Amino acid sequence: MKRFLKWAGFVCGVAGLGLGLYLVAIQMTGNFAAVVPGEAYRSNQPTPADLATYAGRYKIRTVLNLRGRDDGSAWYRDEAAAAKRLGLTLIDFPLNAGRRLDAKTAADLVAVLRDAPRPILIHCRSGADRTGLASVVYLARIAHENEETAERQLSIRYGHFAVPFFSPAYAMDERWEDMEATDRSAG
């Protein structure tokens, strides 16, 4: 039994190390991915150089900042200056990854995603939780993708790791479930 427990501990340790390295790697590479190619993309907090690259390569026209306006922070001042210099529309839409969105905020998010000039770059700090929720909403409500495809945006693939009662980011999953329930009752 001791041997089994040692082996199981070793396997869990290696798996944990591998997951940790993966999460660091996606952050170091910008956690950038297409949500819908040519329409919507997602990333972690972009640098001014990232914005220039994304604008050039993917023709980004709008940056949706889910961290909210923060004039006192260098990251925000840099982002706002880069967006202005590149002729991009910057939309500040503050979300809190640990708090469920109310129905009005969810409806406002849908409206922003629907009405913003495309292609759009959606980001938060790590590009995992808030960005994941906005990407699910984009796929389901704007691109009209199926539920399974949309929900892949809230996954470990992008660094979203939410466990009920243990992870504050689970609020993003709960909000999406609330929105789906509203859809089912309306339809």
3D architecture notes:
The protein has 187 residues and is α/β, with parallel strands linked by helices. It folds into 2 domains: 1-30; 32-186, Alpha-Beta Complex (Protein-Tyrosine Phosphatase, Chain A). Helices cover 53% and strands 11% of the residues. A 5-stranded mixed beta sheet has the order 1-2-5-3-4, sandwiched between helices. The N and C termini lie far apart (55 Å). The model has no long low-confidence stretch (mean pLDDT 84).
What labels would you give this structure?
five-stranded mixed β-sheet, 187 residues, alpha/beta, 7 helices, 53% helix, globular, Protein-Tyrosine Phosphatase, Chain A
Strand segment count: 5
Could you tell me the radius of gyration in angstroms? Answer: 18 Å
Query: Beta-sheet strand percentage?
Result: 5-15%
Q: What structural class do you assign from the helix and strand content?
A: alpha/beta
- The strand order across the widest sheet is 1-2-5-3-4
Taking the alpha carbons of the first and last residues, their distance comes to 55 Å
Q: What is the overall shape? A: globular
Query: What string gives the helices and strands in order?
Result: HEEHEHEHEHHH
